[in-house]
Design a protein that fits this description.
With 937 residues, the protein is α+β, with helices and mostly antiparallel strands. The chain is 40% helix and 16% strand. Among the domains are: 185 residues, Sandwich (Jelly Rolls), CATH 2.60.120.10; 203 residues, no CATH class.
């Protein structure tokens, strides 16, 4: 069957061999005798001579093969297609849409055809699979693809008289898609020709001249279906794709072509130093690619052969290859037509600008955007011909003219530095520099690319260090730590100080161990001590600084200059410690460091003086402990204490401060630390005034503890403290502990569990925050006690604004766009889902609190709570209708605010809230009133 089909295709083809590129060119004069001005032309000719074995489009006749098509309840469709069955199929079809940006549009003035998707019909001929495989094999040959192709059935199309599809390109519909296959089925018709255009070539593919046949093209080929003048054009369409992990198709150059190209490139490289016009050259590609597909791996046809040839030769010659989207911007005047929204041709051009809008490496890794380009770098003068201005669609990615950029290797740093400095130290240049630094940081860790990438990294860094931001808020990009390590190891001696100064503190402790080894091997400490101190000072936390000092210097330095350096560093760090964010690890590091280098007298005299605490001299360690404990208790800010668990929680939504999370973690607390601190106070028989002060501070601040910290910090403290009291024979009836347990558990109920929310039946919802005309009308609807649903016809941008405002305000409603009519309609429907969710969440918290309280040892808790036991255990103050907690412990326990139902500040009393708001007058609106949200004022 396959052999017969192959012969049939050869015998009954449409009279043309598989299409090939029209670029053949004539071998130019010997380039070795050319002047520098002819180098570009010679190289362009050498590249033009490279041919793919395939074309951008193809069409062939096929032998007859009935697929045995079954369409729904119509049954089998006979061949050739008859009028009555054509009408039956059309009755089952929908009007075919087309894509425009992120929209799917039905517009018969652009696309007028009938469509059945692949789920609405089936092919029952078992031989069809083999027939299709033979077709796909010929598709590969015609398009120049020498690896397996996957053809996935997409749809059936019926073009009746007058049906057509204006010029367009096919968008990717499946992973790996590169083209489209159309199989025309037997159906008499005239017209319906497919016009395919690519670069400067045009072909006409005629299904009307084939009883049965196929046509195929690459996805980026512009094509249109001309109107059918009679009969029915009946086709099946398939998406053509390669497997994602499939090696891209390729075709090696013939040896003569390769030698010619190699010679042209070599001649260019020998002449490049003498001409500014040869510093970089750009060869435009045949096909268009989106940014996502811009890589050698994603290239098609002749582009792939050209790119592979250049990449192979670049391993032999000192040149680098990049890829880019080329952009030409022409600015000028045009005739203004207020009522015409289409694009206009420029009557007079004032200025023309060329740029590489997106720069990537050969693997498609992004490097930079908006790189300035000299028109003289373009090898082809016609690469922007026949390209009209068009609206950039940021949803799909801009597909412009793409090209291969050739740069002499020793000129690559200057080229990339230009990319990193777009129009001064601007936001664009910062973004480009960050991208390039990240790229070469990663590459310099690859042993095979280490040397050249490290040189490039150094070059970019030196250029960056010499630049200053245009604005104070602009922050220079940082290298990652492995790249910093590589960079600092590459710059020693006097250069090290300048490098450290510009690194922005992202230095790994491994660097200090490495520099210690270099000093041991003969590197002068005097030469690097200033840079080392700068490096240590740049570290973000005190514990890191001290660890770095220890990594560089031994415990008993023999050299006086090393000991003096360590002493200076330590004194400076302790002086600046007051202004730093400090945590447990910092305290341990200070003590460890002082013990390592000094003695306890130094700890007493220096550390306690730094903390402005006067300690008794005897016994030394107990004095230190008591003084530090007193200082810590007096400085304790209970409401501000944040647990490590809270900061690390994935559900955490907002930071507690503007400080980075890493800094907050340094000062974060763990419940175990609180328990240990209290145990130490009891075990070391610390004066009673310390535990009294600690208890009193917590009791006084209990009602200001953040709700999320009860389960992470304070309940675990109460649980652990019971055992500490038992172990140290402290009676549970001690007043300070009774007050502590009553205050914390009472606050736990009122602040974490909260008051039981009422079941809301009101239709009044909170307002959105915006005061524009659309939002004012929306707020009027939300404030209405009688309206549940509102339909608002309006344009897309206005609808999206209301969507955003409703989401931001957390209004208890649904809001969806109904895609019917023009303009589409925003439908807002009030719900109780947020209120219902609040009640469910409250019940879950109440059940959890009951479990927590009953988890304490009953008798111990009864003694600790005393007269408050029944009230707290039964949670008397939080149930709906309860008058209040009436805490006997003396704490002012207030019910927590009810969960919000709508806008800011909402609680159960929606009406009371609205009465004092700008929308209060709406509460008096009659139920029959209709609110018009479409007004524009």
């Amino acid at each position: 069957m396959l052999a017969a089909l192959n012969e049939k295709i050869k015998a009954e083809g449409n009279g043309t061999a598989p299409l090939t590129s029209s670029r053949t060119g004539v071998r130019p004069p010997n380039v070795s005798d050319s002047q520098a001005g002819n180098i570009r032309q010679a190289l362009c000719h050498a590249l033009d001579q490279i041919n793919s074995t395939g074309s951008f489009a193809s069409a062939r006749a096929l032998p007859s093969m009935d697929p045995c098509l079954i369409v729904g309840d119509i049954g089998k469709i006979d061949l050739p297609l008859q009028e009555h069955q054509a009408r039956q199929i059309i009755d089952k079809c929908r009007q075919a849409p087309y894509g425009k940006g992120d929209q799917t549009i039905v517009d018969t003035s652009v696309r007028n055809t009938w469509e059945l998707d692949s789920s609405q019909f089936e092919m029952q001929n078992p031989k069809w699979r083999t027939f299709l495989a033979a077709i796909v094999s010929h598709v590969g040959k015609d398009l120049g693809i020498n690896v397996p192709i996957r053809a996935e059935l997409y749809e059936m199309l019926v073009y009746e008289q007058g049906a057509m599809f204006k010029s367009h390109t096919d968008s990717p519909k499946i992973p790996g898609m590169f083209g489209t296959l159309v199989i025309s089925l037997p159906s008499a018709h005239t017209g319906g020709d497919v016009i395919v255009r690519h670069r400067h070539e045009k072909k006409v593919l005629k299904s009307s001249e084939m009883d049965q046949g196929f046509m195929c093209w690459y996805s980026d080929v512009q094509h249109e279906v001309l109107p059918v003048t009679s009969g029915y054009r009946w086709v099946l369409t398939y998406n053509l794709a390669l497997e994602p992990d499939q090696e891209r198709p390729g075709a090696g150059l013939r040896q003569g072509h390769r030698a010619y190209l190699h010679d042209a490139l070599r001649q260019w490289l020998t002449k490049v130093a003498g001409s500014d016009n040869l510093q970089r050259l750009i060869y435009a590609l045949d096909h268009h690619y989106t940014e996502a597909a811009l890589s050698v791996q994603g290239f098609k046809g002749r582009d792939l052969v050209v790119a592979q040839a250049l990449r192979d030769i670049s391993s032999e010659l000192p040149m680098d290859i990049f890829l880019g989207t080329l952009e030409k911007t022409a600015e000028g005047s045009c005739e203004d037509d207020y009522y015409d929204e289409d694009w206009h041709s420029l009557d007079e051009i004032y200025d023309t600008h060329f740029a590489i809008s997106t720069l990537v490496d050969v693997d498609g890794v992004h490097l930079a955007d908006d790189v300035e380009l000299d028109e003289k770098s373009l090898l082809q003068r016609d690469c922007f011909e026949d390209v009209d201005g068009e609206e950039i669609n940021y949803e799909e990615g801009y597909a412009g003219n793409e090209g291969i950029i050739l740069v002499p290797r020793d000129a690559t740093p200057a080229f990339l530095q230009t990319a990193a400095k777009v129009k001064g130290y601007s936001e664009s240049s910062i973004k480009n520099l960050a991208s390039l630094l990240a790229y070469f940081s990663e590459r310099c860790q690859d042993p095979s690319k280490d040397a050249s990438s490290l040189l490039m990294l150094k070059s970019l860094c030196e250029k960056d260090w010499a630049s200053k931001p245009m604005h104070s808020f602009q922050v220079k990009p940082k290298l990652d730590k492995p790249a910093v390590m590589k960079l600092l190891q590459a710059v020693t001696g006097s250069s090290l100080s300048g490098a450290v100064e510009n690194i922005n503190g992202n230095i790994d402790l491994e660097f200090f161990a490495w520099i210690k080894g270099e000093i041991a091997n003969g590197l002068s400490f005097a030469e690097v001590q200033k840079a080392l101190l700068q490096a240590v000072q740049s570290l973000p936390h005190l514990s890191f600084k001290l660890a770095a000092v220890r990594a560089v210097t031994p415990p008993k330095p023999e050299e006086e200059e090393v000991e003096e350096w360590e002493r200076t560093a330590l004194e400076e760090f302790l002086d600046t410690a007051k202004s730093m964010v400090l945590g447990l690890q910092d305290g341990a590091s200070v003590i460890s460091h002082c013990v390592w280098y000094r003695d306890i007298d130094y700890i007493q005299a220096r550390l306690l003086r730094a903390g402005q605490v006067t300690a008794a001299q005897q016994p030394q360690w107990m004095s230190v402990f008591e003084a530090v404990s007193k200082s810590m208790i007096s400085a304790m800010d209970v409401p501000a204490m944040v647990s490590v668990l809270t900061l690390e929680s994935p559900s955490r939504r907002t930071p507690y401060s503007g400080a980075p999370v890493e800094d907050q973690l340094l000062s974060a607390v763990q419940s175990g630390w609180l328990v240990s601190f209290w145990e130490n106070l009891l075990e070391k028989k610390a004066p009673d005034h310390l535990t009294m002060a600690l208890s009193s501070r917590i009791v006084a601040e209990a009602n200001r503890i953040p709700p999320q910290e009860f389960n992470h910090l304070w309940i675990p403290l109460l649980q652990g403290l019971i055992h500490a009291l038992e172990d140290n024979s402290i009676p549970f009836s001690t007043q300070r502990y009774q007050a502590l347990y009553a205050a914390v558990l009472d606050a736990f109920l009122t602040r974490w569990v909260g008051k039981e929310p009422a079941k809301s039946t009101s239709l009044v919802r909170g307002a959105v925050r915006c005061s524009c005309g659309d939002c004012a009308g929306l707020n009027a609807f939300l404030a209405s006690p009688s309206l549940r649903t509102q339909r608002i016809p309006m344009g897309k941008q206005r609808r999206q604004h209301l969507h955003n405002q409703l989401d931001a305000a957390g209004v208890d409603c649904t809001h969806v766009t109904e895609h019917v009519g023009s303009p589409h309609t925003l439908v807002v429907n009030k719900t109780t889902r947020l209120a219902d969710a609040a009640r469910r969440e409250w019940r879950a918290r109440q059940a959890r609190a009951d479990e927590v309280i009953r988890g304490f040892p009953a008798e111990a808790l009864r003694t600790l709570l005393g007269a408050e036991y029944d009230r707290i255990v039964n949670m008397e103050g939080i149930w709906l209708g309860a008058a209040g907690s009436g805490a006997g412990s003396g704490t002012s326990a207030q019910p927590a605010a009810a969960p919000r139902e709508g806008g800011p500040g909402r609680d159960d009393g929606v009406a009371e809230l609205l009465e004092g708001s700008p929308w209060g007058w709406m509460l008096k609106r009659k139920a029959v009133d209709v609110i018009d949200l479409t007004r524009s004022d």
